[in-house]
Amino acid sequence: MRQILFAGAIGLFLSLIGTPLFIRLLVRRGYGQLIRDDGPTSHHSKRGTPTMGGAVFIVATLAAYFVTKLIAGTTPTVSGLLALFLMTGLGVVGFLDDYIKISKQRSLGLRAGPKMIGQTLVAVVFGVLALNFPDERGITPASTRLSFVQDFGWELPAVLIVIWICLLIAGTSNAVNLTDGLDGLATGATVLTAGAFTFIGVWQYSQSCANVVTAGPDCYEVRDPLDLAIIAAALMGACAGFLWWNTSPAKIFMGDTGSLALGGALVALAILTRTELLLVVTGFLFVLITLSVIIQVASFRTTGRRVFKMAPLQHHFELMGWSEVLVVVRFWIIQGIGVAVGLGIFYAGWAAR
Fold first, then answer.
1. Predicted structure pTM score
2. If we measure between CA atoms, which residue out of 328, 309, 332 comes closest to residue 40?
3. Quick one: angle between helices 78-104 and 54-72, nearest 10?
4. Do 173 and 180 form a contact (C-beta atoms < 8 A)?
5. Which of 11, 175, 269, 303 could form a disulfide with 290 if both were Cys (CB 3.0 to 4.6 A apart)?
6. pLDDT band at 61 (very low <50, low <70, confident <90, very high)
7. The pLDDT value given to residue 226
């Protein structure tokens, strides 16, 4: 378990010291955030704040994982590399979006079509690769079944599973993107959910069917649970270090570079730990904010009326008079409750078996 501590500590250290260095680089180049005119007026003061900060915790997570493997003298696993690929691949799509915003001096970057194509391409490659590379027991990184706290139901054709994986990736990455609207909100929420996946990975490793000596009759058929816990710990540490600078008043924003990457990392952990639908609970805040946008759009298009003062949901409460810090802290509490409930369900699922 020392690898998990190493990964978390290295990710925290690299992100904590790397973020201010990256801020100076962005300031010198004039890479500042553009603020939408139709957003809350209180956000206009944030115009020019350095953006694309997600690159810091992407690099910190990657470095923490590989340095940890080097220290431990172990080989990176297929599951670990796939999770990092999805995080980095979506981060590249987000980087292109951010760069276009800055270079073209407009608040909208990539058009919806090219952006979706980029996300889909990365998702398809991930999905196809995740259904291959079986280990010595024939277990592939992703399952051909749906999963909640473990796999359930019938095996599905590979094509349907890849489509399902693409939908999960698109939904999660865009949900985190919608959540990234206030200083530290998405970063802090991700720290909590990544912590949940660290626990899940450790627990699955201790109860893995591969550990025939220690595993009970109701063991977990997950290909590389310990490596996934290492990545979750590295991500948690990297986001915590970034949060030091991203909390209100933010010195840097993660941009789409960060939000899409975080969504990719979390959904990869969910898919590869066979807890896909549990992510709805452990990532409850992301779901809640996404639902607010869906409800707002559906209501306006069908009735011409808006349910919320503004969507996503965090801006509704800002316009109700809540301070930005108050909204962020209370939303973190909501996410924390979701994580606690999710872990409770996960443990109850094991105990019931």
1. 0.93
2. 309
3. 160
4. no
5. 175
6. very high
7. 96
C-alpha 117/C-alpha 97 separation (Å) is: 13
The CA distance from 171 to 267, in Å, is 9
Alpha carbon separation from 44 to 51, 167, 181 (Å, rounded): 15, 34, 13
Q: How many CB atoms lie within 10 A of CB 314?
A: 26
Q: What is the pLDDT of residues 292-311, one digit of tens each?
A: 999 999 999 999 999 999 99
Percent of the chain with pLDDT over 90: 81
Burial of 271 (0-12, 13-18, 19+ CB in 10 A): buried
For residue 7, which of 70, 57, 65 has the smallest C-alpha distance? 65
Over range 50-54, report the average pLDDT. Answer: 91
Task: List pLDDT tens digits, range 319-340.
Answer: 999 999 999 999 999 999 999 9
User: 78-104 and 255-272 are packed helices; what angle lies between their axes, rounded to 10 degrees?
Assistant: 160
Contact indicator for 251, 24 with CB cutoff of 8 Å: no
